[in-house]
Amino acid sequence: MSQLLADLQQNLSFVLVSALIVAVIILLSRLGERFLPDLHRPSKARFVTIVGICAALAAVLYTLDFPLPFLAPDFYKLDFSELPVILCGFYLGPTAAVTCEAIKIILKLLLKGTTTAFVGDLANFVVGCSFVIPAVILYHIHKTRKWAIWGLVAGTLVMTVFGSFFNAVYLLPKFAQLYFGSDLSRIIAMGGAVNPAISSVTTFVVLAVAPLNLIKGVLISVLTLLLYKRVARPLFGK
User: Fold this and answer.
1) What would the pLDDT profile of 50-65 be if each residue is shown by its tens digit?
2) Contacts of 211 (CB under 8 A, 6+ apart)
3) Which of 1-15, 146-160, 209-223 is predicted with the least confidence, judged by mean pLDDT?
4) For 181, which DSSP code?
């Protein structure tokens, strides 16, 4: 805990930017719920219980992340932590999903700490929400398998496009600032060692970041479609 606090103090500007981003995401989820009049609203105790269970499962899955060394440098990792988050969102809505995503990050930091000065954890939260929020909102418009598929497809596409843009504009420069004295060329070189076609920020996000997010979105979408009906009764009592 003391190390986490020390890291936070050393990255105050980053913390402020992160807080602003989180506030915007919460606002988007709340606005989305205003157009979902048929949203299931359990008691507060049940809401907290379900979100807590899903966040705990997501945190465990987050600690089990792993790299895809044939696709991207090792500091980019694949995890399945959005699976419990999106299951929670399908039942309770976008605000619950964002809350679950945030608690997941907090629990992971307490369990495992951070090896990326919180940049990777912010990335996981923001990019994860870019997948979950569209998918959950579209599913709640019409709670059918067809709309679940459309939502998951939309979420995957948004995560792939937005994740690439967010990496290019903010995350990669921040990683370079923290670890390489703002020398982006060293990160590009790490990508080039994996794929010789990577020679710039643009090729890095197109050839490494975008495929990684696309793979993650497809895998989680398939697992969601396979598991939601099966876990709805034992997990949600539905």
Assistant:
1) 999 999 999 999 999 8
2) 71, 72
3) 1-15
4) T
* DSSP string for residues in 141-178: HS-SHHHHHHHHHHHHHHHHHHHHHHIIIIIHHHHHHH
- Going by their DSSP bridges, the two strands 77-78 and 66-67 should be labelled as antiparallel
- Residue-wise pLDDT for 107-165, tens only, equals 998 888 877 777 888 889 999 999 999 999 999 888 889 999 999 999 999 999 999 99
CA distance 210 to 204: 9
Helices and strands (DSSP H and E) totals, the chain: 11, 2
Name the amino acid, one letter, at 47.
Answer: F
CA-atom Rg of the chain in angstroms: 18
pLDDT 10s digits, 67-99: 898 888 888 889 999 999 999 999 888 999 999
pTM: 0.86
Residue 125 near residue 102 (C-beta atoms within 8 A):
yes
Burial class (CB in 10 A: 0-12, 13-18, 19+), 54: buried
Tokens of 237: 């009592």
Contact between residue 83 and residue 58 where contact means Cβ atoms under 8 Å apart: yes
Q: How far apart are the C-alpha atoms of 14 and 117, rounded to whole Å?
A: 10
